[in-house]
């Protein structure tokens, strides 16, 4: 009796023809072939060729009548061997990679099935390993087997459609370039024969560790054969390149790429691919193997887990194959992770069971990459692919105190400085309104501080200069419209962890503009445009052409905004020097109770001499007349606050009202006098007469020549006299 294995293989391959069975390597070949005719009827149905031969002759006549006149029908050999060769040639040059990977066993079953039509091929495909590609190309397979051209489907008149519709083509189906290998069941291979010399690789082998196994692909054998078998061989000590028997068999395949499930037995797995070819499976297994190429896989660590400790260090655990050496490198998240010795952690803190990072970057997303480094059999070293894990160490927050001073090199700007923290970054803000009190008491989030006014529009983006840990920004200018500027430094670790430092406030009061002095007889009125944002405006007196220090002087007048709106200007009732002076106006803002002054707006006051006079009635005895008595004359006295030399005066009278200028009335006297400051001086005398009139004293010069002299009238009642 045949062996159980031979029966199972015969049933699996569905072999119905004796000449096909003769090419299979059986355990008990002679026994199986002797009873082949008894075994064949046990399969489902009679063999396909017998069924085809038993069809009615009328069908053949009908087919012959359907042939066009003068055309010889195409006939190809239907022997299983010829059908197998045609299928092998068709699959080897087919553009579909899935067709090229159809195994020789499936092609042999198709060749021995007797199928010649699409339907028959689809029926046989149900019993094949490569069922999908055979079904997809059933028409082509039938044409190859029968030798007839592919028939198109009969055209049918399509019903008219009301309108053409745009059809979206289906998305292309992505195919896996490294599908899992389907290992072939084969007889035992004959050992490598050293009689032909050593093995030399004709191509290349690539081995990359993927998520589902080791991805392999290699150079196809350049020669064609009915049967081509590739053997994948592994070893833990060296490349099995001397002979296949120097390693352990991973599997046999007809493909040239795929994914193999290989398990590590050490730091490195050495791989080689050998190829056997022949006219049959038996011939291939008995032929001398050829070396395709060699490669290796360095196994990476596994099970990497990291943890941030309470003291802000990073610790990790991992597993490695026995005999491996581990190196750990650190990357910022988003950077390309590749082996870079410059990023390596201290090897004293790394072992085959884990590592420690005592000084990780704070406040950043970190990627740790662990590599296994193996010494290969040829003396070189190779690293594995990395296994990675992420960590984020939150540094301790601190309040950053910022120092702000007015720039001495660039007036109107500020110099800013602060001490850099060990970790995290510092974000500076300058705002016109002070952040709310208490915002700096505890750490906050980005959302909270932005809601309290520290928004990106107020962020200071000037690059600082590092002076050994002291960060400085010089010449920073705020919005010129701001009176107050509040500077804040924020220790920014993450959007969820920020701490606002204490605010430093600086004020830049604006000076009054468009200032003018309006002269009055007994005072001066200063008008100006009120500077926005200041509390008060103060006026200071100083020598002409010189400035004053407002912090060390007393103002001669000051005005609040409400008083400015009510009065329309600043009134100075203090007597100013007749020879002139300088008036300096300052906008004042109070910061922490201390006045802060703007730049000065200076006015030049040219001065004015004030002349006061009196009209005194006198009696006949040259003494002042008593009340109720008729005077004999009127004497006029004058007094000035600054010396006047040889000044012509005019005493003018007018009936019924006061004269308005020297030419407005009767000229009663025209003395020329010199007056000393502060001395009561006699100017002239008018005899009394019968006519009642008003008299008045004028400086008898044109306005352009008399200079700044103000004549102050006495009470009007004393100016009504009889002349």
TrEMBL record:
Domain SaeA third Fn3-like residue range list: 408-502
Extent of the signal sequence: none
A Pfam family recorded for this sequence: Fn3_SaeA_5th
Compositionally biased region (Low complexity): 156-168
SaeA first Fn3-like domain boundaries: 205-297
InterPro entries noted in UniProt: Fn3_SaeA_1st (IPR058691), Fn3_SaeA_2nd (IPR058692), Fn3_SaeA_3rd (IPR058693), Fn3_SaeA_4th (IPR058694)
Domain (SaeA fourth Fn3-like): residue spans on this chain: 513-604
Segments for region (Disordered): 146-179
Residue spans of biased composition, Pro residues class: 169-179
Top-level taxon in the UniProt lineage: Bacteria
Residue ranges of every copy of the SaeA second Fn3-like domain listed in the record: 311-391
Protein name (record): Uncharacterized protein
């Amino acid at each position: 009796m045949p062996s159980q294995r031979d029966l199972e293989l015969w049933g699996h391959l569905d072999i119905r023809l004796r000449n096909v069975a003769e090419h299979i390597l059986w355990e008990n070949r002679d026994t199986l072939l002797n009873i082949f005719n008894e075994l064949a009827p046990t399969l489902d149905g009679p063999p396909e060729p017998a069924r085809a031969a038993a069809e009615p002759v009328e069908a053949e006549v009908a087919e012959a009548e359907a042939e066009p006149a003068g055309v010889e029908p195409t006939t190809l050999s239907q022997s299983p061997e010829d059908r197998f060769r045609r299928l092998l040639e068709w699959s080897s040059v087919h553009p579909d990679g899935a067709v090229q990977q159809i195994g020789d066993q499936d092609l042999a079953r198709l060749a021995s099935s007797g199928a010649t039509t699409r339907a028959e091929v689809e029926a046989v495909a149900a019993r094949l390993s490569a069922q999908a590609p055979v079904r997809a190309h059933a028409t082509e397979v039938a044409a190859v087997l029968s030798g007839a051209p592919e028939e198109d489907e009969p055209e049918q008149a399509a019903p008219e459609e009301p309108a053409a519709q745009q059809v979206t083509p289906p998305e292309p189906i992505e195919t896996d370039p490294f599908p899992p290998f389907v290992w072939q069941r084969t007889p035992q291979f004959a050992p490598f024969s050293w009689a032909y010399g050593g093995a030399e690789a004709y191509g290349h082998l690539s081995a990359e560790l993927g998520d589902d196994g080791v991805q392999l692909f290699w150079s196809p054998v350049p020669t064609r054969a009915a049967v081509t078998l590739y053997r994948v061989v592994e070893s833990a000590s060296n490349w099995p390149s001397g002979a296949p028997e120097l390693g352990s068999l991973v599997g046999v395949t007809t493909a040239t790429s795929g994914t193999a499930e290989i398990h590590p037995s050490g730091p490195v797995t050495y791989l080689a691919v050998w190829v056997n070819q022949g006219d049959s499976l038996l011939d291939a297994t008995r032929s001398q193997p050829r070396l395709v190429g060699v490669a290796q896989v360095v196994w990476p660590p596994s099970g990497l887990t990291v943890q941030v400790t309470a003291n802000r260090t990073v610790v990790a655990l991992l597993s490695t194959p026995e005999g491996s050496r581990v190196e750990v490198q650190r990357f910022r998240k988003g950077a390309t992770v590749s082996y870079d010795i410059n990023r390596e952690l201290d090897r004293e803190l790394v072992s085959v069971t884990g590592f420690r990072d005592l000084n990780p970057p704070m406040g950043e997303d970190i990627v740790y990459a662990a590599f296994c480094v193996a010494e290969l059999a040829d003396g070189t070293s190779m690293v594995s692919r990395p296994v990675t894990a992420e960590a984020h160490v939150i540094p301790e927050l601190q309040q950053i105190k910022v120092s702000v001073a007015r720039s001495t090199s660039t007036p109107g700007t500020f110099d800013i400085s602060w001490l850099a923290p060990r970790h995290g970054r510092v974000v500076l803000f300058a705002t016109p309104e002070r952040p709310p009190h208490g915002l700096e008491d505890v750490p906050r989030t980005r959302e909270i501080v932005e809601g309290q006014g520290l928004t990106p529009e107020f962020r200071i983006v000037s690059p600082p200069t590092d002076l050994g840990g002291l960060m400085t920004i010089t010449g920073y200018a705020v919005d010129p419209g701001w009176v107050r500027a509040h500077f804040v430094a924020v220790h920014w670790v993450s959007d969820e962890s920020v701490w606002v430092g204490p605010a430093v406030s600086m004020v830049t009061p604006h000076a009054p503009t468009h200032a003018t002095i309006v002269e009055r007889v007994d005072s001066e009125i200063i008008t100006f445009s009120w500077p926005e944002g200041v509390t008060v405006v103060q006026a200071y007196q100083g020598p002409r052409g010189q400035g004053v220090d407002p912090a060390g002087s007393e103002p001669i007048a000051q005005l609040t905004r409400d008083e400015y709106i009510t009065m329309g200007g600043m009134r100075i009732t203090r007597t100013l020097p007749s020879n002139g002076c300088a008036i300096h106006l300052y906008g004042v803002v109070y910061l922490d109770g201390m006045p802060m002054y703007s730049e000065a707006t200076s006015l030049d006051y040219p001065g004015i001499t004030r002349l006061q006079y009196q009209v005194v009635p006198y009696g006949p005895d040259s003494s002042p007349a008593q009340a109720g008595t008729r005077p004999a004359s009127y004497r006029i006295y004058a007094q000035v606050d600054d010396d006047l030399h040889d000044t012509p005066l005019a005493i003018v009278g007018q009936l019924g009202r006061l004269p308005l200028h020297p030419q407005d009335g009767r000229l009663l006297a025209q003395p020329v006098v010199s007056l000393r400051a502060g001395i009561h001086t006699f100017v002239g005398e008018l005899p009394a007469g019968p006519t009642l009139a008003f008299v008045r004293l004028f400086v008898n010069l044109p306005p352009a020549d008399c200079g700044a002299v103000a004549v102050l009238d006495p009470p009007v009642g004393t100016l009504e006299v009889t002349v």
